[in-house]
Amino acid sequence: MIATKIFTALAILLLIAPIAAFAATDSKASEFAINHIDYEDNVAPGTSIPVEMTLANSDPTLNIENIEVKAWLENKFGERVSDKAIASGLVVQQNSDRDLALTLNVPADVEAGDYTIVIQASGRFEAPFAVAGEKVTVEARKTLQVEGQDDSVYVTDVRLSKTQYKAGDTVDVAVTVRNNGKDDLSNVAIAVAVPEFDVLKSVKLFGDLYSGTEQTVYFTFNLPKDASGIYTLTATASNNLAKNTASANLIVEVPAKVDATKTPTSTITKGLKFAQTDSVQLNIINKGTETKTYAVAVVADNIKTTVTPATFSLAPAQSRTVSIEMTPEATGAQTATITVTEGGNAISQMTVNADVTQGLSGFAGLFVGLAIIGAAIVAFMQYNKNNNGKTAKTLYY
Fold first, then answer.
1. Cα separation of 119 and 342, whole Å?
2. What is d(CA 279, CA 384) in angstroms, rounded to the nearest whole number?
3. C-alpha dihedral over 308, 309, 314, 317, to 10 degrees?
4. Could you give phi then psi for residue 197, rounded to 5 degrees?
5. Which residues are CB-contacts of 212 (< 8 A; sequence separation ≥ 6)?
6. Which residues of the chain register pLDDT less than 50?
């Protein structure tokens, strides 16, 4: 009888516990809140604004862990118009608050008007209680007014022609600027600079930069022969009323390390013709036991080179033929250094010593060819005459 009562009591507890846990779970959302949101209102397009807030945990016993906070801008249609500002890995102790600031970037191309700052925070209550690991999410919304300035310019994009360069390469830069103010701007100048290379180039836009419009200008410069590493390229748009600067990383490949005592080297001599393309073939074999990735690079002052393929992977015992096309751009003694690397280290290096001579131009070559054909015809006619018109025969044994 007693056993029956105990069994019944346990069954009732098993039925009630999930309901109680659900009730507790449902109530947890009200114990996490985003309070005291503060920011600068009435901002201009292209402005970065700090958004300050307080995360509050009113639960008397549980911490909230692994909190991630996101903030972004939405337009009147509920569409996100900005990047998300994110902070993660936060903890708010039981029955306490935590202050937080996120930087929100107002896009340069947004129109004046009212926008909504959306702040969303999510985390989990700590273990080992009945509601352990419960996820809780809260959200807050505030209105931000964006007002266009009378005179404002913004560099919206700095685009390089490559993600990575080699020493001596030509760098092409495209800079896009936008008039995000209310008034048209005149005499707008665009400049790019890399102080380490003494690069400073500028150009003035033709005509006015009208309100709400953008223009793209292009710059070109050459990297020094000894450049290597990461540099900062700055682009500035300005006139006497407005100014804005943006930047981009200019990455120059670090040359492969060559240990003369360990790296096999060789030298070949090759005759080349000015402005005519010739090639060198390399056969690369993976003699190891693992798949490896190789790169082939050429350094030459007055020889234009093309490597095919420049990078590739080989399984153990596999081989690959690499073709290096060479087109001399100057006559005389020229040198090209071919380096094969694996894992950033040089494994082979070959020096090509080229004696570049002046090749025949197209017309000169044609003239010589016609002269040779004419001489052959005359010789044949003379031979025919000497043999009384008889055709010579070749006998095969």
1. 48
2. 43
3. 0
4. -105, 5
5. 179, 180
6. 7, 11-26, 130, 387, 389-397
Backbone angles phi, psi at 327, to 5 degrees: -125, 105
CATH number belonging to the domain at 153-252, selected among 2.40.50.140, 2.60.40.3140, 3.30.70.330, 2.60.40.10: 2.60.40.10
Backbone dihedral angles phi then psi of residue 326, each to the nearest 5 degrees? -125, 125
Tokens 């080992």, residue?
128
Strands (E), 147-228: 153-160, 170-179, 189-194, 199-204, 214-222
Range 66-69, long-range pairs (CB < 8 A, 24+ positions)? 66/90, 66/91, 66/123, 66/124, 67/91, 67/92, 67/121, 67/122, 67/123, 68/121, 68/122, 68/123, 69/100, 69/102, 69/119, 69/120, 69/121
- Domain range list for the chain: 26-146, 153-252, 265-357
Reported as a single tens digit per residue, the pLDDT across 16-62 is 444 444 344 445 668 999 999 999 988 888 889 999 999 999 999 89
Look-up of token digits 């992977």: 313
- pTM strictly above 0.70: no
